[in-house]
Amino acid sequence: MLRAIGQSSATIMNSRNLCSKASSRLQGKVAVVTASTDGIGYAIAERLGQEGAKVVVSSRKEQNVAKAVDKLSKAGLDVAGIKCHVANAADRKALFEKAVQKYGGIDILVSNAAVNPEVGAVLDASEAAWDKIFEVNVKCSFLLAKEALPYIRQRKGGSIVFVSSIAGFQPFSLLGAYSVSKTALFGLTKAASQDLASENIRVNCVAPGIVKTRFSAALHESEGAQEAALSTIPMKRFAEPKEIAGVCAFLVSNDASYITGETIIASGGMPSRL
Ligand code: NAP
């Protein structure tokens, strides 16, 4: 339905309740999005689907996957789902095999999963928390890209996006180790993009500011926390997941065909870099 209309263009309501056109610039593409049954990942899966891609959604819990697939399918999008904890090698293998078996290949990988098991300054982090953060946020992003690469190469080109954070540029004092893990993704983006540029495989990164999701609940649940967080954002509001999804859709589309190794910041003006 929506996708069929999307062959030309479809009218959707965006997060700011403005009418916008979803293009069909991802028609014929197959996208794998990790951690995509809620929050930013779900919004990315939805947006890529609205732009014509066939999308494989995944997360740790079967029931969340089933719910997301049901919702996206009912919206007329071409999606499949599979359980995938990104730190589980068998799950990652099954994820890519699902995409190939169901849709015939992989053009786009969005690596979106991250954890933050502890709150505190970087040098107060426990070794266990540091290991977990670096395993899921950095090592699994690397492994997902490495394992998706042979499939993307078969398509003679494609696109990888890592979801980082504004905290990777300007560390959040209470998210010390997490912030460092997000900085590492900028390096991974740069290194992989240079290696793959001549193969027509682009590697980019999105660095969201504070987005209203379960992950950031501590920053917007109570009035006091919300006020403190909003005082750090020049636009004086949190982002909606759809506002990050739009950036990601741009990066994986042909509109970004000459962009690789870059990070786009969507932070409502929060300080980042020159
Ligand atoms: P979220 O709303 O809490 O959504 C988390 C999603 O990830 C759920 O679908 C969850 O489903 C899945 N998930 C969690 N751990 C997983 C794992 N190990 N393997 C696979 N799936 C997993 O989180 P979010 O705010 O959208 O965050 C998404 C990304 O954006 C993260 O990389 C985060 O660092 C980044 N980010 C967020 C913000 C923010 O303010 N929210 C700001 C900057 C960057 P299951 O429970 O079923 O696994």
Describe this protein with a few key phrases:
274 residues, alpha/beta, Rossmann fold, 9 helices, 16% strand, binds NADP nicotinamide-adenine-dinucleotide phosphate
Walk me through the structure.
The chain has 274 residues and is an alpha/beta fold. It has a single domain, classed as NAD(P)-binding Rossmann-like Domain (Rossmann fold, 3-Layer(aba) Sandwich). It is built from nine helices and nine strands. The strands form two sheets. The chain has a seven-stranded parallel beta sheet with strand order 5-4-3-6-7-8-9, with helices on both faces. Helix 4 packs parallel to helix 5. The N terminus is likely disordered. The protein binds NADP nicotinamide-adenine-dinucleotide phosphate (NAP). The site of NADP nicotinamide-adenine-dinucleotide phosphate (NAP) has 29 residues, from helix 2.
